[in-house]
Specification:
The protein is mainly alpha-helical. It has a single domain, classed as lambda repressor-like DNA-binding domains (434 Repressor (Amino-terminal Domain), Orthogonal Bundle), CATH 1.10.260.40. The chain contains four helices and no strands. α2 packs across α3. It is elongated.
Length: 85
């Protein structure tokens, strides 16, 4: 993997996938902490349960606006950080 990370295209793909999975995990954790089912969250967002499932699997592109709506539906707030690498 170390050799592959030197390839800029591979590294970009890897980092994008990592971000998608971290977002997916955060949504799933927040939903669990709020003791909400995917269906309940979907109803609160006026969307389908399948969309929530795809978000939590990292298989759905999610906008900042959608993440903010999810956070508010879970009685939370969205927080974004940029950290030095």
């Amino acid at each position: 993997m170390a050799g592959e990370m030197r390839d800029p295209e591979f590294r970009r793909f890897y980092e994008e996938a990592d971000i998608e999975m971290r977002v997916a995990l955060e949504v799933a954790k927040a939903r669990g902490a709020a003791q909400m089912t995917q269906g309940e969250l979907a109803r609160a967002l006026k969307t389908k349960q399948q969309i929530i499932s795809r978000i939590e699997q990292g298989a759905q592109n999610v906008t900042i606006e959608t993440l903010d709506r999810i956070a508010r539906a879970l009685k939370g707030r969205l927080q974004v950080r940029i950290v030095a690498s």
